[in-house]
Design a protein that fits this description.
The structure holds two protein chains of two kinds. Chain A is an alpha+beta fold. In chain A, 56% of the residues lie in helices and 14% in strands. Chain A has two domains: 184 residues, no CATH class; 180 residues, no CATH class. Chain A starts with a helix and ends with a helix. Classes of the chains: A alpha+beta, B alpha/beta.
Chain lengths: 397, 225
C-alpha cells in the first residue's frame, strides 16, 4: 500500500465528489482541446488553401472578392466574368513571372444531368497554369486530357469506378488532391478544353446548357518575380486593367479571418468563464471534502503521517481525478473532431484540417497540462489548510 | 518514558477569550505502566493525552518522550517517532471508511516505511486473529459493529510494535459486555507484551484494570501523581 493506492481508494470511495471533480477536469480539457483544434485547424486549412492556389495575387472582377473567397473557402459556386484580354495585359506588366486565367463554373441544382448539385468547378489553362500543372506532373507524371478531371479530397466517382456526370457529360476522375479543409476539397479541376467541350455538348445533353460567355475568364492568378513589391504590382494592375481588384494571397480570406478573430475572442471569453467556474467548483468540492475528512486526516496524522504526506495525498487525488477527467475529455474531443471533420467543412463551411500527429500530441499534452493545473490549483488551498492543521484540533468536532 | 513538565494548554475561543484545558501539569509515566486517567468531561484528560503524543503543541512547558523534547523535533521526525513508538485508540470511529479491515491495520506501516516488509500481511493477520476478527479481513468498517471496529483499531495500534498505547475513552461508545472484552484485551496486551498503556476514561470502575490511576479536574491532577 502506498500514497497512490490510498488516493485511488479515496476516489473510488467518494464517487459523487470524484465525479464532480473529474467532470470539471473533463470540461476544461475537452473545451480547451476542441477550441484549439478548431482554431488551429482553421488556420492550417487557410494556409494550405493559399498554398494550393500558389499565386501571389489573384485578380478578380471588382466587387466579386467576397464571392471568390466564399467559393474557395466554402465551395459555394461563383459565377464571375471579365474580359479574357485582361490576362494578356497583366502578363505584359513588369515584375510578372506568370499570369494564368481560370474559369469558375458550377453544376446545376437538382438536375439529373449533374451527379453533384452546386459543385464549384475550376477550369485552368494548361499552357500558363502554375498551380495544378506542377502537381499533375509530380503526382501523375502526365497532363490532364480531354474529359479528365482532378477532384478535391472529398470528390469521388458517382458513375462506375471513375466517372462523374456533369451537364450530361461523363468526366473521368484521374486523381484527388490532398485535403485542405476548405471548399477546394469539394471542387473539381479540369482544362479549358474540357470546359468548352462540356459547354458545347451540354446544349443537347443537359437540362440547361453550361454557359461560358465568349472571350471571358473569371480570374487571373499572378505569380510575381522574386523581390517585386506586391503592393506596387497590385497598384500597377489596377492602373492598367479596368474594373478588377487584385487580392494579395496574404490578404486572402481577410473578411473570414476577421470573423474568426471575433469568434476566437468569444470562445476565449467562454473558455475563461468555464475555466474560472470549474476551478471555483473544484475548490469548493475539495474544501467540503477536506472539512468532511478533517477527523480522518487527523487520525492519519496521529498514527504517523507527516504534513507533507497529507498534502501530497490530497494533491495525488486531485491529479488522478484530473487525469481521469482530462483523458476522457481529450479522448472525446479528439474523437468528435475526427468523426465530424468532414461535416464541419462540408455542412458548416468551416475551414478545418486535422493537425499533424506531432502537433496533435502537443495539443493533447497542453490540454492535459491545463486540466492538471486547474484541478491542482483548486485543490491547493484546501490541501495546505488541512495539512497544516494540528492533528488534535482536526480530530475535535 | 513520557514526562510532562509544567505543561499548560490554552485554547483561544475568540478575540478576547480563551479556555485553559491543562494548567501547569507535571506527570511522569514509566515504561510498562498501565495508567488510567479519570475525570469528568472537560477536566483536560484528552488534552493531556494529545499533549503526551505531540498531537497538539503546549502553550507552555515541555513534553519529553524517551529523553527527547517532542517540540524540538521537526514535523517529519515527530511523525516518525509517533509511527514507531505510539499506538492510538480513539473514542470515535477512527477506521478509514474507504479501506478494508486489513488495509486499515497495515496503514501505520505506510508511514513507518515498513510497508514493503514481507512480514506485514502476516503481522496484520496475526493481530486480527488476536482480536478475533481474522475472518473480517476483507470487510469494510461500515460492515462491522462498533465493538468490532474498536478491536480493529487496537490491532492497527499494535501494528508497528509500539512501546506505548494511548487510548482516549476507547469504550465509551460500547455496551457493557463489549467494554469488558476490550478492557480484557488491554490487560492481556499489558501483561503478555509489557506494553505501556495510558488510558483516559470517565468510568471510575475501569480504574481496577490499571497499575496506576490519575484523577484530573479543571486541567490539574488532583489525585495519583
Amino acid at each position: 500500500m502506498n500514497i497512490f493506492h490510498l488516493a485511488l481508494k479515496n476516489i473510488s470511495g467518494n464517487s459523487f465528489r470524484s465525479g464532480v471533480v473529474a467532470l470539471c477536469a473533463f470540461l476544461v480539457a475537452a473545451f480547451a482541446l476542441t477550441t484549439t483544434l478548431l482554431m488551429r485547424g482553421a488556420e492550417n486549412s487557410l494556409r494550405l488553401a493559399i498554398d494550393r492556389l500558389g499565386a501571389d495575387i489573384v485578380v478578380v472582377p471588382s466587387g466579386s472578392e467576397a464571392k471568390v473567397e466564399s467559393a474557395l473557402l466554402m465551395g459555394v459556386p461563383a459565377r464571375i466574368w471579365m474580359p479574357q484580354n485582361n490576362v494578356n495585359i497583366i502578363a505584359n506588366l513588369s515584375g510578372i513571372e506568370a499570369a494564368s486565367p481560370q474559369l469558375y463554373l458550377a453544376t446545376l441544382t437538382g438536375a439529373s444531368c449533374c451527379s453533384v448539385s452546386d459543385m464549384f468547378m475550376i477550369a485552368f489553362d494548361p499552357a500558363t497554369d502554375f498551380t495544378i500543372q506542377p502537381w499533375l506532373k509530380q503526382n501523375l507524371g502526365d497532363d490532364l486530357r480531354l474529359g479528365e478531371v482532378v477532384g478535391g479530397s472529398y470528390i469521388s466517382a458517382t458513375e462506375g469506378d471513375q466517372n462523374i456526370r456533369i451537364y450530361g457529360y461523363l468526366v473521368t476522375l484521374k486523381a484527388n488532391l490532398e485535403p485542405t479543409g476548405t471548399g477546394l476539397d469539394q471542387s473539381m479541376f479540369f482544362t479549358f478544353t474540357t470546359a468548352q467541350d462540356i459547354a458545347r455538348k451540354s446544349v443537347t445533353q443537359a437540362e440547361e446548357p453550361l454557359e461560358i460567355p465568349p472571350d471571358s475568364i473569371s480570374a487571373v492568378l499572378v505569380k510575381a518575380q522574386p523581390g517585386v513589391d506586391l503592393y506596387d504590382l497590385s497598384a500597377q494592375i489596377v492602373r492598367v486593367v479596368p474594373d478588377v481588384t487584385p487580392i494579395l494571397s496574404s490578404d486572402m480570406f481577410q473578411s473570414y479571418r476577421t470573423q474568426m478573430t471575433g469568434l476566437l475572442k468569444t470562445i476565449l471569453v467562454i473558455m475563461g468563464i468555464t475555466w474560472g467556474l470549474s476551478v471555483v467548483l473544484i475548490g469548493l468540492v475539495f474544501s467540503m471534502a477536506a472539512n468532511e475528512r478533517r477527523k480522518e486526516l487527523g487520525v492519519v496524522r496521529a498514527i504517523g503521517a507527516t504534513r507533507q504526506f497529507v498534502f501530497q495525498s490530497l494533491l495525488m487525488e486531485a491529479s488522478l481525478l484530473a487525469v481521469l477527467g482530462g483523458v476522457t475529455g481529450i479522448g472525446l474531443a479528439v474523437l468528435f473532431v475526427f468523426l465530424f471533420k468532414k461535416l464541419i467543412v462540408v455542412s458548416l463551411g468551416f475551414p478545418f484540417l486535422l493537425p499533424s500527429p506531432s502537433v496533435l500530441i502537443f495539443q493533447i499534452f497542453i490540454g492535459m497540462l491545463l486540466a492538471l493545473f486547474s484541478v491542482n490549483l483548486a485543490a491547493l488551498f484546501p490541501a495546505i489548510r488541512i495539512s497544516r492543521q494540528d492533528p488534535a484540533v482536526a480530530m475535535r468536532e | 518514558m513520557i514526562t510532562l513538565e509544567n505543561v499548560s494548554k490554552v485554547y483561544p475561543l475568540g478575540k478576547d477569550s480563551a479556555v485553559t484545558a491543562v494548567r501547569e501539569l507535571c506527570l511522569q509515566i514509566d515504561l510498562g505502566e498501565f495508567v488510567i486517567i479519570v475525570g469528568r468531561s472537560g477536566s483536560g484528560k484528552t488534552t493531556l493525552l494529545n499533549l503526551s503524543a505531540g498531537l497538539t503543541r503546549p502553550t507552555s512547558g515541555n513534553v519529553i518522550f524517551n529523553g527527547t523534547d517532542l517540540w524540538s523535533l521537526s514535523d517529519k521526525q515527530q511523525s516518525y517517532l509517533r509511527s514507531q513508538n505510539i499506538g492510538f485508540i480513539f473514542q470515535f470511529p477512527s477506521l478509514l471508511p474507504t479501506l478494508t479491515v486489513h488495509e486499515n491495520v497495515i496503514l501505520p506501516t505506510v508511514f513507518a516505511n515498513k510497508v514493503t516488509s514481507d512480514h506485514t500481511p502476516d503481522r496484520a493477520k496475526q493481530l486480527l486473529q488476536q482480536v478475533g476478527l481474522v475472518e473480517k479481513m476483507a470487510a469494510y468498517p461500515r460492515q462491522l459493529s462498533a465493538g468490532q471496529q474498536q478491536r480493529v483499531v487496537i490491532a492497527r495500534a499494535m501494528m508497528n510494535h509500539p512501546v506505548v498505547l494511548l487510548a482516549d475513552e476507547p469504550t465509551s461508545n460500547l455496551d457493557e459486555r463489549t467494554e469488558l472484552e476490550i478492557m480484557e484485551l488491554f490487560r492481556d496486551l499489558h501483561r503478555s507484551m509489557g506494553i505501556t498503556i495510558i488510558m483516559v476514561t470517565h468510568t471510575r470502575q475501569l480504574v481496577s484494570y490499571g497499575t496506576r490511576a490519575v484523577e484530573m479536574a479543571e486541567g490539574r491532577i488532583i489525585n495519583g501523581k
